[in-house]
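The instructor's notes for this session suggest beginning with a concrete chain rather than abstract definitions. Hand out the sequence below and ask the class to guess, before any prediction is shown, which regions might be ordered.
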Amino acid sequence: MAELEEAGYTVAVFIDGNPAGILELSDRLRPGAASTIRRLTDLTGTEPALLTGDNRRAATRLAAEV
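After discussion, reveal the predicted structure:
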């Protein structure tokens, strides 16, 4: 579980506060996300910021994909 969390996945499943299983969940990029980021960067001259309510590892993994 620690390896998956370090890789930026959401993994814990709890039932009544007790660990019950492990799921490997992650966000997926929308088609065209990378080209949209490139166009925004070209238009503004700066890289956009990623705002998320997710944990830092998950955000870092998703940003790296873009």
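Then share the key points. The longest helix spans residues 33-44. The chain has a mean pLDDT of 85.
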